[in-house]
């Protein structure tokens, strides 16, 4: 019987919570609910994300509670001071909860100390117990998430890579299509790039979580980080093209480049498909690099245009930029295909 992702998460949370409730009394914790709350707060959809959050939770609990304890020890028992620090901590918890889990947990630790200080029960002994119970909750949730119906982040990233490259190919195709008909503007190019940048950021976040799962899988980590770095270079060239192509709209040379850019659009679409096929572990033979910018016919047309009255210096700067980034994009994609095919060959041989 196959359970949905939500059901699996619910089962893992219930089992981890039950374990925390059963184990805490045997360790003689006076505040066993801290371990339970830690388990509930840390439960995430994948093992990698859970490990990441557990590590941050434990580290920031130690740091935040220690800072809060130090403030109380230095300044003494002043309830108005505890209220003020608690007010500030609450503000920053809400401020950071959606953007920085680590910082939110740091201020949560300080808030807990201030609340107990106002009640009149905080001590160094409670600090040690708070740290111990948080550690217990972290260990339980990491073990349960990794052993019971585990969901691995590194498997998810494979599909994300394909999705990002498909979106990148779509953006590149649209940029070239719009520039060919003279309708590409700087505003439109930025609008096309925004979804790509968001997807790239989501991929980087997933990979941060996946690294915790692959701590001992050095080959996977190395290959994945290389691919991320090269994907970043590809998106850089796409961004540079999006800045250069709109400049051709008013240039005298734009008509001269229409034919080679049309050929390039077909070529780069095939190149992106090679990357996607390689990510899906299919065997491909990479195309030769794009040489449409280096043909005698284009050189002759540009030479005549340079000698004519229609020539302006900036026109050829924009043309040079477009040709350079288009060529570099093709070369980088070809390099990615060759690397992926090399990895595929190595796996098949082994």
What's the tally of helices? Answer: 12
What overall form do the CA principal axes indicate?
elongated
- Strand residue percentage: under 5%
* Oligomer designation: single chain
Q: What is the averaged pLDDT score?
A: 82
CATH topology of the largest domain: Methane Monooxygenase Hydroxylase, Chain G, domain 1
Residues in helix, %: over 70%
What is the element layout, followed by pairings?
Blueprint: H1 5-23, H2 33-42, H3 47-75, H4 79-96, H5 101-119, H6 124-147, H7 153-180, H8 186-213, H9 218-244, H10 254-279, H11 296-307, H12 313-349
Molecular structure report:
The protein is mostly helical. It has 2 domains: 5-147, no CATH class; 153-349, Phosphate transport system protein phou homolog 2, domain 2 (Methane Monooxygenase Hydroxylase, Chain G, domain 1), CATH 1.20.58.220. The protein is built from 12 helices and no strands. The chain has helices spanning 5-23, 33-42, 47-75, 79-96, 101-119, 124-147, 153-180, 186-213, 218-244, 254-279, 296-307, 313-349. Helix 1 (5-23) runs antiparallel to helix 2, helix 3 (47-75) crosses helix 5 (101-119) and helix 8 packs antiparallel against helix 9 (218-244). The radius of gyration is 28 Å and the shape is elongated. The model has no long low-confidence stretch (mean pLDDT 82).
């Amino acid at each position: 019987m196959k359970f949905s992702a939500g059901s699996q998460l619910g089962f893992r949370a219930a089992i981890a919570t039950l374990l925390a409730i059963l184990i805490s009394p045997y360790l003689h914790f006076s505040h066993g609910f801290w371990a339970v709350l830690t388990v509930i707060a840390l439960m995430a959809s994948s093992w990698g994300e859970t490990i990441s959050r557990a590590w941050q939770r434990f580290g920031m609990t130690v740091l935040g509670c220690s800072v809060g304890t130090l403030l109380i020890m230095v300044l003494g028992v002043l309830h108005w001071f505890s209220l003020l620090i608690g007010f500030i901590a609450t503000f920053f918890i809400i401020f950071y909860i959606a953007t920085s889990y680590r910082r939110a947990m740091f201020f949560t630790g300080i808030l807990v100390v201030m609340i107990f200080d106002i009640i009149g029960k905080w001590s160094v002994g409670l600090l040690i117990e708070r740290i111990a119970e948080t550690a217990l909750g972290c260990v339980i949730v990491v073990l349960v998430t990794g052993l019971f119906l585990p969901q691995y982040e590194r498997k998810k990233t494979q599909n994300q890579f394909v999705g990002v490259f498909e979106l990148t190919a779509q953006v590149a195709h649209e940029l070239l299509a719009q520039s060919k008909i003279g309708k590409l503007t700087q505003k439109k190019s930025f609008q096309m790039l925004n979804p790509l940048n968001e997807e790239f950021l989501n991929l980087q976040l997933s990979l941060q979580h996946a690294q915790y799962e692959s701590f001992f899988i050095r080959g996977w980590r190395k290959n994945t980080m290389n691919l991320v770095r090269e994907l970043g270079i590809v998106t850089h060239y796409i961004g540079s093209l999006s800045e250069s192509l709109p400049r051709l709209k008013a240039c005298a040379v734009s008509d001269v480049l229409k034919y080679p850019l049309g050929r390039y659009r077909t070529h780069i679409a095939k190149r992106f498909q090679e990357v996607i096929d390689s990510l899906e572990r299919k065997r491909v033979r990479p195309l030769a690099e794009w040489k449409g910018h280096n043909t005698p016919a284009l050189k002759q047309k540009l030479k005549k245009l340079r000698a004519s009255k229609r020539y302006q210096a900036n026109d050829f700067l924009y043309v040079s930029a477009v040709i350079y980034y288009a060529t570099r994009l093709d070369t980088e994609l070809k390099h990615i295909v060759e690397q992926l095919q090399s990895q595929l060959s190595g796996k098949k041989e082994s």
